Amino acid sequence: MNTSQPEAPQHDPRRLPGLLADAGRELLATAAGLSDVALAEPSDLPGWNRAFVIAHVEGVCRAMTRQLEFAARGETVDFYDDGPDGRNRDIERRAQRAAEEQLNTLTDAVSTAVAVFAGVTGSEWDSRISYRDGTVRDGALALWRELVIHASDFGLRRTSLDWDSAFCHYLFEFLTARVPAGTALKLQPLGEQPRTLLNGSGTPARTVVVTGLLQDIAAWLAGRKPLGGLNATAAADGVDLPELLPWPSAMAPRG
C-alpha cells in the first residue's frame, strides 16, 4: 500500500525514452576514460569493483535488448541464459577485460538498448516480456533504475544525492517489496509530504518512521549508504533502521 501520489512522469510511456537517453548519457559520461587501475578500484556497491559494475550494466542492457527483440515477434525469452549462475559467470568473465574493451562494449550495449526503447510506440509498451513476467514498459523502468543507480555506484562524479525527485519517488514505489512483513514504513522526506509503504495486506504490527533527505531515504531503500543521516522512530522511540528484504529479482514474477 502506498499513500496517493501525483501521477509521475515515468508512468507516461512517452516520457520513458527520454529518461533512458538521459540516464544512459550520464552513465557513459561518468565511466568515460576510466583506466585499468581505476576499474580495479572498489565501487560504492559492496563487494564489486568498477569493472564488475560495468560488466553488470552491459549484461542488463544486452538482456533487455533481447527481451524487446523477442517481444516484437510476440515471443518471450529468459532474461539471462542459464539463470542467476549464467549471469554471475558472464559478469566475472566480462570484468576481466582491458579498460578500453570494457568501455567500448559498455557504450555499444547502452546505446543499443536506449535506441531499441526509443523505437517502441503505442500498444508495443504493453507487449509481454519474461522480465518479472511483465511488459516492455516494465523493462524500460528496470533499465532506468539500473542506469541511474549504477552511475552513482562508480563513486565518481555522481552520487545518490543527484537522483531527482521523480526517480526517488519511483524507487519508493518499486522497492515497497523490500519492506519487512508486519512493518509499515512511514517515510518522511524533509520538506515533503510523508508516504507510507506496506508490503502485503493486513494490519502491520508496528510502524517505523524514517526521516531524512529524500535522496538518502531512496538510497537506503536501494541498498546504498545514505550520504546524510537518517532517523528512525517507532512509537516515538528511537530505533534502528529495519533490515530490508532482498532486492526484487529480475527473474521473479510480479507480486
The major sheet is characterized as:
5 strands, mixed
Order of helices and strands: HHHHHHHEEEHEE
Q: What's the end-to-end separation, in Å?
A: 12 Å
Rg: 19 Å
Low-confidence stretches: 1-7
Rounded average pLDDT: 92
Structural class of the helix and strand makeup? alpha+beta
Helix content: 40-55%
Number of helices: 8
Q: How many beta-strand segments?
A: 5
Domain Mycothiol-dependent maleylpyruvate isomerase metal-binding: 20-153
Organism: Arthrobacter parietis
Protein name: Maleylpyruvate isomerase family mycothiol-dependent enzyme
Pfam families: MDMPI_N
Architecture overview:
The chain contains eight helices and five strands. It is globular, with a radius of gyration of 19 Å. With 255 residues, the chain is of the alpha+beta class. Keywords: Isomerase. Pfam families: MDMPI_N (PF11716). Residues 20-153 form the Mycothiol-dependent maleylpyruvate isomerase metal-binding domain. It comes from Arthrobacter parietis. GO terms for molecular function: isomerase activity.
